[in-house]
Amino acid sequence: MQKKYGVLASALTLTLMLSACSGGNSGNSGNDGNKGNEGSPSASASASSPAAGGVTDDPTGGEKVTLSFWTLFSGGDGDNMQAMIDQFNKTHPNIQVKNTKLEWGEYYTKLITAVGNGNGPDVGISHTSRLPDLIDQGVVSELDEVASATGVDWNTFNQNLLNATVVDGVHYAVPIDTHPFIMYYNKKLLKDAGLLGDDGKPVMEQSADGFVNFLAQLKEKLPSSVTPFALSNSNDDPYRLWWALYSQLGGNDVVADDLKTAALDADKGAKAAQYIQDLFTKGYIKKNDPDFYKNFQSGTAAIMMTGVWATGTWESTKGLDFGAMPIPKIYDQEATWGDSHTIILPVTKKEDETKRKAAIVFANYLADNGAIWAKAGHIPSKPSVIESAEFKALPNRSDYASVAGTVKFSKPSTKNWQLRDNVSFKFLNEVWAAKMTPADAMAKMQAAYQKLLDE
Q: What's the pLDDT at 234?
């Protein structure tokens, strides 16, 4: 991937990109500012988590280092991130991290502009999906040399999450989580329908027919006021379900390896879209649902699918007895949509090697303390954290932690967000509304993808 260093132009492009991880879904403020604020965990929560994997605990040589850290987190995420920063500062007296919280909608534009002006932070946040463009614009620096110098072991990370941050064989980010698309279910409603097992999990055959039969029974056995499957009628979440099913079918990424050619597998794309369209037309998903989050939260939806950032919201909802699990395996292989929060070291006007070493130690520390970060629902990026007693003590998270290995990331195209928001949403929304056949939508999407890639 060639770096164009067109920083200001990129800022204008990113301004057009929509919303946070939640995609601006009605009734949900996203995992970067989720409604389920759980408060700051106690500082002692991570005191027992020393630097792991042989990482240098203090690479400063006794020098006092202050790191500026730009984040985009609010709500529960903001509380948990600040708690980790505070504990890092206490346990690393020679390295002090100062957190500057920016608004999500302004974050990437401000980051790109600041780096272009030589005023960027020492440490930043990037979603994995945003990395290709940041790399292309020369905003983020390579990490292999500084990681090696401080003893960061890339093998301690979930390799599926890590590989998504590697471009042309180079590491550009330290993943601290994944926040994938999963399924939630109302235990009381499933029990009323006779579809909750003794283990507290849904009684459902993991197949295309099995999931439809499950929804059909919910519709038949529950009151008409109950929605079998709460899902947005447009944009992010139905797209995420489509991407998940398309990936379960073994569909190609929509961009070829050369990052210049559209590569949509139209047959598999149409099959996945038809399956979802049928869920709408058969009444399993409520049409024109003004707030599908509220639908589930109020106890009038049996299941829903969205990102793991909703976990904290449901846990803070009085009287909601829910469970969480990976989305069903509808087709040949387990797969779902997901993104990750990663730590990046932005390019600086004058490279300070001591600061860079301190920054990578901090990044690795955040990954090592993923059990705190998981309080908001995220899946930690290190398998060792998932196996820890601290993580296992958290409710629900272990029920979907395996999804970290089945998230299907897109290839590192600089146009991934435009391909999704400007093309996929446009035509798939027509399918969900039964205004376009899945086959026609795939043909139009392929042509539109190619046109965008040619620009």
A: 97
pLDDT for res 278: 98
Q: Domain limits at 58?
A: 7-179+339-405
What average pLDDT does this structure show over 180-198? 98
DSSP 376: G
Side-chain half-sphere CA neighbours of 420 within 13 A: 26
Q: Is the pLDDT confidence value at 7 over 50?
A: no
Q: Which residues contact residue 94 at a Cβ distance below 8 angstroms, ignoring those fewer than 6 apart? A: 58, 60, 62, 63, 64, 65, 358
pTM comes to: 0.89
Distances (CA, A) of 177 to 106, 282, 372, 384: 22, 36, 11, 13
Please check whether residue 444 is in contact with residue 269, taking contact to mean a CB–CB distance below 8 angstroms.
no
Question: How do residues 353-404 score in pLDDT, each as one tens digit?
Answer: 999 999 999 999 999 999 999 999 999 999 999 999 999 999 999 999 999 9
Angstrom distance (rounded) from CA 309 to CA 198: 27
- The residue type found at 359 is A
Three-class secondary structure of residue 369 per DSSP: coil
Count helices and strands in the chain by DSSP H and E runs: 20, 13
Mean pLDDT along residues 290-316: 97
Residues 6+ apart with CB under 8 A from 17: 108, 417, 421
**254 shares a domain with 174:** no
Residue 417 has pLDDT above 70, yes or no: yes
Asked if the model's pLDDT at residue 350 lies above 70, the reply is: yes
Query: Within the chain, what is the greatest distance between any pair of CA atoms?
Result: 69
Tell me how many domains the chain contains: 2
CATH number of the domain within which 76 lies: 3.40.190.10
- Taking residues 202-224, report their average pLDDT: 98
DSSP secondary structure, 158-221, as one string: -HHHHHTTEETTEE--EE-EEEEEEEEEEHHHHHHTT-B-TTSSB---SSHHHHHHHHHHHHHH
Nearest to 78 by CA among 270, 291, 341: 341
Helix (H, G, I), strand (E, B), or coil: what is residue 400? Answer: helix
